Q: What sequence folds into this?
């Protein structure tokens, strides 16, 4: 493809992305599906480009998208709402993640004859939510504040849990041994220490933010610091996603640090971000989201119908497990049908599943290429199914509200 055409395509893509957002408001079909379709057209269909053309930049770009989207999600986490939702969120994570992992692990072990560790690995990878999909959808679907907070926390904690469990199982696959106690200990310590780093970094940044604003062209310093936090957490072996999420949440709740004990020792009051900075972060998320889903679309190839069938069955199991969990957890609660439908529909897979799904293949483990292909199909079908069901559910709720 000529450079001039590439430049024209990039410019046109942003106009299309805005058009897809407007289309979502009218049709209730999420804009991310249209972006994936564009990726499918320029990739597998027309063969204009392929993931290999991006070299090492492609996976790195995906990680950048995750970091920025999680940070912006943290900026919207009000601590008062979190207090009300935290217990509910933990119940939702435990019920949906582990029930889904158990059912999927059984499916891959008994029906498809994978060994126990490999079956558990696949299940752990695809059982978690995807903030890169969930957070943009929540912005557009506009559920109640409590449900939005619950799902925002769930997407961050749930994905981090999926990463930790998957990596623990992956290490067991390499060693060909399962150590349940060590696995659980690693997950808990990783979460707590990453949250501690995010909290301390958030407080520090809220103190120096006044000075930072006096610099020229300083609006990008906060996202830059976010990358440092993510990298530091990952380098130390902790959960980067949790560190970034807590950092954003700390900046959102700087008022909680204005207590007498702290104020006496530190004269500079912590401050949060202003509306201009928040709008800027939103623009960054929009750009990264647009390119991420196009990149995801062109990374898919339709070569094996059997793998696609496995992915389709997996999606049915995931939806079933989440639907039952939500029904049991929210029975008798005073939530609207619309809110509950949004809760059980949030099953899309994204960045973490794509990265984790490649681990076995990259390390030369048996059936690694097959597993990677299946997980990629699961990601695609989960987003397609999610988009279709959101469209149906939102239309039905709109009709019921008019009656």
A:
């Amino acid at each position: 493809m000529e450079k001039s055409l590439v430049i024209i395509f990039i410019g046109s893509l942003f106009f299309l992305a805005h058009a897809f957002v407007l289309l979502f408001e009218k049709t209730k079909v999420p804009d991310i599906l249209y972006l994936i379709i564009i990726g499918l057209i320029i990739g597998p269909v027309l063969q204009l480009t392929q993931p290999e053309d991006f070299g090492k930049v492609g996976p790195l770009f995906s990680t950048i998208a995750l970091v920025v989207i999680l940070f912006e999600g943290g900026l919207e986490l009000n601590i008062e709402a979190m207090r009300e939702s935290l217990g509910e969120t933990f119940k939702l994570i435990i019920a949906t993640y582990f029930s889904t992992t158990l059912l999927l692990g059984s499916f891959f072990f008994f029906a498809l004859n994978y060994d126990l560790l490999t079956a558990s690995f696949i299940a752990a990878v695809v059982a978690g939510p995807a903030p890169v999909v969930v957070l943009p959808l929540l912005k557009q679907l506009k559920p109640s504040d409590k449900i939005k907070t619950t799902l925002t926390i769930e997407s961050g904690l749930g994905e981090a849990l999926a990463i930790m469990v998957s990596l623990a199982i992956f290490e067991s696959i390499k060693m060909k041994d399962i150590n349940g106690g060590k696995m659980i200990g690693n997950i808990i310590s990783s979460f707590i220490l990453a949250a501690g780093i995010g909290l301390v970094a958030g407080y520090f940044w809220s103190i120096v933010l006044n000075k930072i604003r006096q610099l020229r062209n300083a609006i990008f310093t906060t996202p830059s610091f976010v990358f440092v936090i993510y990298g530091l957490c990952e380098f130390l072996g902790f959960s980067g996603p949790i560190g970034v999420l807590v950092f954003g949440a700390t900046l959102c709740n700087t008022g909680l640090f204005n207590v007498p004990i702290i104020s006496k020792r530190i004269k500079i009051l912590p401050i949060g971000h202003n509306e201009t900075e928040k709008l800027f972060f939103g623009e960054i998320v929009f750009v990264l989201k647009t390119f991420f889903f196009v990149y995801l679309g062109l990374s898919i190839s339709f070569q094996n119908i059997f793998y696609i069938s496995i992915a389709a069955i997996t999606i049915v199991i995931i939806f079933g497990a989440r639907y039952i969990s939500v029904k049991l957890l929210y029975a008798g609660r005073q939530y609207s049908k619309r809110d509950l439908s949004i809760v059980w529909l949030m099953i899309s897979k994204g960045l973490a599943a794509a990265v984790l799904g490649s681990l076995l293949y990259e390390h030369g483990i048996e059936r690694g290429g097959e597993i990677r292909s299946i997980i990629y199909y699961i990601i695609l079908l989960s987003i397609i199914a999610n988009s279709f069901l959101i469209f149906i559910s939102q239309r039905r709720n709109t009709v019921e509200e008019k009656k």
